[in-house]
């Protein structure tokens, strides 16, 4: 039976991806900073582990406890929306620690077992905002664009060991807590800086007033991750969701 380890399973894409693999008979090692059985009730093949991707000891313990796996899905991430000038350097570092360095650290921890058995797949969850520049998202976009470039390069060096590495680019998800959490974090840290307040409000007003367009559902992302994990011919990066696919095609 194949085993997948997924980071960031407390909600959204990670939670749906865990369910998706469980439904297909895989053993799922679902990780969260604070494991909650109420989020993912006990099921055949399910293991819940504590993991903070910014903590090297936590990573080492979780990877050791997980044992042999076939696929690592790096999904854990945090969002952020603000102008560069309104983003403290400490916040920038925090975002990169999770979204970028956390992915690299997880891959380093798992690579020895993949290399030893000459098989394994890394699926790194990035974002469709890397396909189209948007205001107020420069820091978040940079943290994800780094993952795109990193994965593309590392995939070449890992191919010699029959290890695959690919990225999935989710679109705008309206049914997860991700964007709401990002805006709440921004407000907690003081909101938009005064010189950018009018500009930022105009951007948010346009977003609120815009007619509904295509968006991304968590199931779209779970299906894309499944394809990336199981299809050796899967393209990378792989957009997930109608809006992400439209952006990838120049829409």
TrEMBL record:
GO terms for molecular function: oxidoreductase activity. This is SDR family oxidoreductase. InterPro entries: NAD(P)-bd_dom_sf, Sc_DH/Rdtase_CS, SDR_fam, SDR_oxidoreductase. Keywords: Oxidoreductase. It comes from Flavimaribacter sediminis. The keyword Glycoprotein does not apply. Transmembrane segments: none annotated. It holds the Pfam family adh_short. It comes from the Bacteria. Belongs to the short-chain dehydrogenases/reductases (SDR) family.
């Amino acid at each position: 039976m194949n085993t997948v380890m997924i980071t960031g399973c407390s909600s959204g894409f990670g939670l749906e991806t865990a369910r998706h693999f469980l439904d297909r008979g895989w053993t799922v090692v679902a990780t969260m900073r604070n494991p909650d059985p109420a989020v993912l009730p006990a099921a055949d093949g399910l293991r819940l582990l504590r993991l903070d991707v910014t903590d090297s000891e936590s990573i080492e313990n979780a990877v050791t406890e997980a044992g042999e796996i076939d696929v690592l899905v790096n999904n854990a991430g945090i969002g952020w929306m603000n102008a560069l000038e309104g983003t403290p350097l400490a916040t920038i570092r925090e975002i990169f620690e999770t979204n970028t360095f956390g992915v690299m650290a997880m891959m380093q921890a798992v690579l020895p077992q993949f290399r030893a058995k000459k098989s394994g797949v890394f699926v790194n969850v990035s974002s469709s905002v890397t396909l189209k520049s948007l205001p107020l998202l420069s820091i978040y976009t940079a943290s994800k664009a780094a993952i795109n470039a990193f994965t593309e390069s590392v995939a070449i060096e890992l191919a010699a060991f029959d290890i695959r590495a690919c990225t999935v680019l989710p679109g705008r998800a309206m049914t997860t807590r991700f964007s709401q959490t990002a805006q709440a974090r921004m407000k907690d840290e003081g909101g938009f800086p005064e010189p950018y307040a009018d500009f930022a409000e105009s951007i948010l007003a346009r977003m609120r007033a815009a007619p509904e367009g295509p968006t991304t559902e968590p199931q779209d992302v779970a299906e894309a991750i499944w394809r990336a994990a199981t299809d050796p011919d899967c393209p990378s990066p792989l957009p997930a969701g109608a809006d992400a696919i439209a952006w990838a095609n120049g829409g």
